[in-house]
Amino acid sequence: MRRRRPRALLVDFDGVLRSYDKRVPGPLETANGLDEGEILAIASDPALLIPAILGRVSRAGWLTDIAVALADRVGGLDPAEKLVADWDTYRGEIGPEVLETIELLRASGVPVALCTNATDDLREDLERFGLADAFDAVVSSAEIGYVKPMPEFYRAACDAVDTAPGLCLLVDDTVRNVAGARAAGLLGYRYTGVGDLAYVRAAFDD
To answer: Could you tell me which residues are beta bridge partners of residue 188?
Structure first.
């Protein structure tokens, strides 16, 4: 039996719509005696990251925590804070193909929500990239106090587009988040690159 066609798209931000070139911060790190990717590794430590994406610590506080963790390696807190501030100026790039798919689906009447684990400055990022009006809803972990793959996050996402879970398709680059969506009754698709967009568009065809 053919699976029911989804009626709403829930799309992740980092790893789907936004990507980062990991080579960009490399020269900054090596110039300060660090390995390439070292700042990201510290920033991604769950002990630092989870409170930030749950909204319990501001982005500014998270950046300070990263600097504290780096201080002994770069000559003290002041140079560490400057280094982290410079690292944070690179905010990635928006994938035009993904954005085009979102625009096409919205134009056809499909509600689209951006659903992401994010720090408290997500809406500033959307303004920065000209995406403030690119979605019918924005569901940010820092605003709702739940992160993917918690079932409460997915319930909030479905509510945001006023669509039953079984008719919502989550597109995310993380296996764990897709599995969590499916466990919560949603449709889930793991995104691996722009070649997947044909499937996403076809999923909404009659």
So the answer is: 170
Q: How far is CA 24 from the centre of its chain?
A: 19
Counting Cβ atoms within 10 Å, is residue 37 exposed (0-12), middle (13-18) or buried (19+)?
Answer: middle
State the residue for tokens 């110039």: 31
| pTM of the complete model | 0.93
Distance between CA atoms of 49 and 92, rounded to whole angstroms?
18
Distance between CA atoms of residues 22 and 97, nearest Å: 20
The pairing of beta strand 168-172 with beta strand 93-94: unpaired
Tokens 């410079």 locate to 86
Return the residue matching tokens 């722009």.
Answer: 194
| Torsion (CA) 44, 76, 73, 120 in degrees, nearest 10 | 10
Task: For residue 46, give both structure tokens.
Answer: 């769950």
CA dist 118 → 54, 104, 204 (Å): 8, 25, 27
pLDDT, one tens digit per residue, over 99-156 is: 999 999 999 999 999 999 999 999 999 999 999 999 999 999 999 999 999 999 999 9
DSSP class of residue 117? -
d(CA 138, CA 115): 6
Q: pLDDT (tens digit, 9 = 90+) per residue, 156-194?
A: 999 999 999 999 999 999 999 999 999 999 999 999 999
